[in-house]
Amino acid sequence: MSRSVAIIGTRGYPSYYGGFETAVRRLAPYLAQQGWDVTVYGRRGTTVDDDPDLDPRVIRRITGGVETKSLSTLSYGFTATLDAARRKPDVALVLNCANGFWLPSLKQRGIPTVVNVDGIEWDRAKWGAAAKKVFHQGAVWTARYADRIIYDAAEIETRWRDEFGRDGDVIPYGGDVPPDYPVEPGLTHRGYALLVARFVPENTVPEFIEAARHIARTRDVVIVGSSGYGGPIDDAVAALTRSNARVRWFGHVSDDQRLHSLWQHAGAYFHGHSVGGTNPALVQAMACGAPVVARDTVFNREVLDGAGLLVTPDPHDIAATVLALMDDPDRQRSLSERAQRRAEAAYSWESVHAAYERSLLAAISERRSLFAGAGRA
Question: How far is CA 367 from CA 91, 111, 113, in A?
C-alpha cells in the first residue's frame, strides 16, 4: 500500500543550500523508490530545476513567504503547513524546530509529525535576542506536539532530554565516498588549507580569517561559503583576497563534484562549527578523506571520534595546527584514512535513509494505535 509524506521546512527539491537541503535531496528519491508518494515544499527560485539527478517521482510544491533572514523559516513553514494540512498526507516530516508553532495545525487534521529539530538554534550568535526567543519557544512547542523527534547527534538528544524531557531517534547526516576527482586548477594536492562554511560567527569564520593571514604567508588558502545576505564577514574575506594572492574565495559552491575535489585534495580542512550537531559538511569532508582540523566541541568530538585534530577557537592555535599538519605528509595520510573509515562505518546515506523511513513508519503506526485505543475506549 502506498504511503504519502510531506516534507516541510527546506528551500525545496533539489536545492544545494544547506544541510537540510542536502538530506532531502538524498532522502526524497529514496522514499519514492520505496513506494512513498513524496511531496517536498519549497520556495520559488531556490531549486535547481535542470538538475540531471532530479527524480520526477518527487512532487514539488511552492508556497509563499517572507524572504528575510529572520522571517523566512517561519513564514514559509506556515504556508507549507497550511497546504499540507489541507492535503492530509499520511505523515509530515518537518525540519527545524522553529516550525513547531505550526504542528497543532497538522495534529488537528490527524497527521502524525516527525520533526528534525536541527541544532540548538537559540545558542547561535547570528540571532538576536528576539529570534533566539522565537527558536526556543518553537522548541517548546515541538517538544509538546511532535509525535516523534529526530536529533542528528547524541549530544543534541541529551540537551533536549535535559531541557524538554523528550527522547527521540538519533539520525545523523550521511556522506558517500566519491570517486577520485582531479585537483582544482591552480592548486596542488595537499597544498592548501580549506574552509567550507556559512559565514556566521559560531562557525569560527572570523577567527579563521585571522589565522589565514598567517597561513597564507607560505601556503594557499581556499575559502568556500558566504553569509547569503552580505555583511561584515563577507567584507573581511573579500578584503583578505584582495590583499593576498594566495587566498581564494569561491563563494557558495553548489557543484558537488567541485566541492568534493576541494575536500579530497586539501592539505587541511578547518571545520569551525560550534553549536550544531552532526554537521553534513564535516561528514562529507571525512568521506572525501580530508585531513580535518576542527574546533573542539562535544559535537565535533562525537563525529570525528579521534579521526581529526581539535583546536581552540583562537587564530594562533588554528594557524599553528593547520601549518603543522600541512608540513607532515604522514600525518595527513593517516588522518585522511581514519576519517574516511569513520565516515563509511557510521555515516552512510543508506543507513540514514533507512532510519528516516523507520521513524516515519513508527509515527504512522503510533498515531493509528492511539486512535484505535481511543475508539475502543
Answer: 10, 8, 9
